[in-house]
Amino acid sequence: MRPSGRQTNEMRAVSIETGVTMHAEGSCLIKCGNTHVLCTATIDERVPPFLKNSGLGWVTAEYGMLPRATNKRMRREAKNGQSGRTQEIQRLIGRSLRAGVDRVALGERQIVVDCDVIQADGGTRCASITGGWVALKLAVQKLMKSGDVITDPLVDPVAAVSCGIYAGQNVLDLDYPEDSEAGVDGNFVMTGGKLIEVQMSAEGATFTRTQMDGLLDLAEKGISELTEAQLAAVG
Q1: Where do runs of H (alpha helix) occur along the chain?
Q2: 47, 129, 133, 155: which has the fewest C-beta neighbours closer than 10 Å?
Q3: What are the GO BP annotations of this UniProt entry (predicted)?
């Protein structure tokens, strides 16, 4: 039995509320169980110097956790004092979102996706990627409505979910009690039924190819459900 009482292939309840901030070109609040992340997308008509005059757009991301997102207060991270974990996660978010973007169709502009964890209960990077895509899509819709972008550069949703081996069983969408005790922990990022990135590690026990295939099957199920929620949120 999972601590939450869920079935092994059952996701936490997912909700995505859009338009939650008045200034950002795209925004949403994604809730995956008790993990809540505010995602905003900002359009910048400038690109990084290495892309100037290339005709290519760029998508990047920043990630952070509020001091009381966890059960004990964390010190607030300064821009130049980010932990290695924070830097690794925001690079993952940026890579993941860019994989689903036609950068030629986007045009020579940058969209910055900010993911701020309000409350953490496992799977914050996955929720950030899933919600980040929604915020990105909403920002692109504004560009298309204004005529600044002609062809939608976002073909398929990008979503992510965690899977792992807990108490000897393959389980989908780990919350914190499971994540902290899982023998194997993995994060799966996909778009259009294809893998973008897989992060898997043996935390307390090794795993077999058969077990990994089972985790991938669970991930595909979970991401299909997240994709439905994303598409419903962006209309």
Answers
A1: 84-98, 103-106, 124-146, 176-179, 209-234
A2: 155
A3: rRNA 3'-end processing; rRNA catabolic process; tRNA processing
Measured CA to CA, the distance from residue 86 to residue 64 in angstroms comes to: 7
Secondary structure of residue 59 in the 3-state scheme: strand
Nearest to 126 by CA among 11, 8, 6, 10: 11
The domain that holds 195 is classified in CATH as 3.30.230.70
Count the neighbouring beta carbons within 10 Å of the beta carbon of residue 169.
12
Q: Would you give the end-to-end CA distance of the chain in angstroms? A: 37
Could you list the residues known to form a binding site for phosphate, using ranges: 85, 123-125
Which residues sit in the known binding site? 85, 123-125
What are the two backbone dihedrals, phi and then psi, of residue 196, each rounded to the nearest 5 degrees?
-100, -45
pLDDT, tens digit, 9 for 90 and up, residues 5-18: 999 999 999 999 99
Residue owning tokens 């997240």? 226
| Structural domain boundaries enclosing 136 | 14-234
Question: Is the CA virtual torsion 217, 222, 228, 230 positive or negative?
Answer: negative
Strands 58-65 and 184-191: unpaired
